[in-house]
Amino acid sequence: MAMSEDGDAGELTHTTDDGEVQMVDVGDKPDSKRRAVAAGEIHLQPSTIEAIREDQVGKGDVLATARVGAIQAVKHTWETIPMCHQIPITNVDTDFTLREDRIELEVVVETTGKTGCEMEALEGVTTGLNVVWDMVKAVEKDENGQYPETGIENVRVLEKEKRRAE
């Protein structure tokens, strides 16, 4: 069974009865305070993680650049996900955790509006991790120019909340 935008069982909301793609009309919905948390990770060589820790990556500060990329992606989700509404982002938090062989990223997005912000949180995670990859790709490549140890994985929504706006 399909789930609606608010998590209720029901019909697919981005298609008409004829199967045509449509944007959901949220005009009559009340404003709500909304929050979504998404996470993911990028697997890297331990030497790359150490270079990031020591700020020894030639392109610059990897995590600062990835943080900016994640925030920009959150703000521009409506431009890249065809059926997303442009929503007022009230807050974005990014949290990077460096492990021995990976970097974990958690993105929290908050808004007050008529629709949720989980797609924005997911876009923040995937873009933030893609920026990390872009910043370290020179040291992650093997002798054949491939990335055998590099991979973005486990991207998911951890939670979403909706509370009536005051």
UniProtKB/TrEMBL annotation:
This is Probable cyclic pyranopterin monophosphate synthase. Pathway: Cofactor biosynthesis; molybdopterin biosynthesis. It is an enzyme of class 4 (lyase). HAMAP family: MoaC_A. Its EC number is 4.6.1.17. Keywords: Lyase, Molybdenum cofactor biosynthesis. GO terms for biological process: Mo-molybdopterin cofactor biosynthetic process. Belongs to the MoaC family. One of its GO terms (molecular function) is cyclic pyranopterin monophosphate synthase activity. Signal peptide: none annotated. Substrate binds at residues 83-85, 119-120. The gene is moaC. InterPro entries: Mo_CF_biosynth-C_arc, MoaC, MoaC_sf, Mopterin_CF_biosynth-C_dom. Residues 23-162 form the Molybdopterin cofactor biosynthesis C (MoaC) domain. Catalyzes the conversion of (8S)-3',8-cyclo-7,8-dihydroguanosine 5'-triphosphate to cyclic pyranopterin monophosphate (cPMP). The active site is at residue 134.
